[in-house]
Predict the 3D structure of the following.
Amino acid sequence: MDLDRLAELRLVVVTGKGGVGKTTLTAVLGRLMAGRGKRVLLLEADPRESLHQALGTEPSGGAMVPAGPGLSIQNLQPAEVIEALVREKVPIPYLARKITESVAYRQFADAAPGLKETALLGYAYRVLHGKKDMVVLDAPATGHSAAMMAAPGLLARASQGGQLGDMAAELAAYLADASRCGVVLATLAEEMPVQETLELIDLLARQGIRPGLVVVNGMYPALPRGGRCPELWKARRLMNEAERARLAAAWDGPMAELPLLPLDRGPALVEVLASRLAEAVP
């Protein structure tokens, strides 16, 4: 998938093993797409909030925060989305509060298969029907993301119709439409991240989903001519090359590399990586 094809999508789900730079990659993709004139929302579900650090904004705290021309970030918790839906459907504040504070509601919200994941994706879906041209979702790590993508279909089958089931079925169809929704995987050229990436590719394939792009983050610089360099540099680069080759042997789709840079997390790093990714995407 090249950047022109990526820009045609409405929802982009970014995932990968924890610690491989998927949040930074989310920020990089958002910056690139906003630079193409898109109104982009970067959506984050991790309560620790990291996106604001990458883009140099205030923490979201649940609100949409501007992060530059055409770009916003938002940290959102699924439980809050579900409660907001209750308040929307029950416009009397006292009754809505009685529902969300009840034991039955808590048990349902915690136990309903795929409800929280569907609520998060459903929020992105609604944002795309009015406020934004694209949502880039900084999704949970590896297998949790595969479960999230499958959640609307699971909820639709469990609900067997009704307003909730119909909503979940509509969302499941949207996620299955490769012209509107895509998945980008982040990894490092190291043994465990590459292994988890290959397992996730296989898991997504069972759901009929093929990632549009795999981005290999944090590649050590190429060895200087003659190979004279510190042993640690040499060892890390050779390991990167071996694991990148293992990934390429098992994955026949688009792949891009981003370098390890001597920059702290922040807007400067995002700008440099955005430029590098624009050059690296096949």
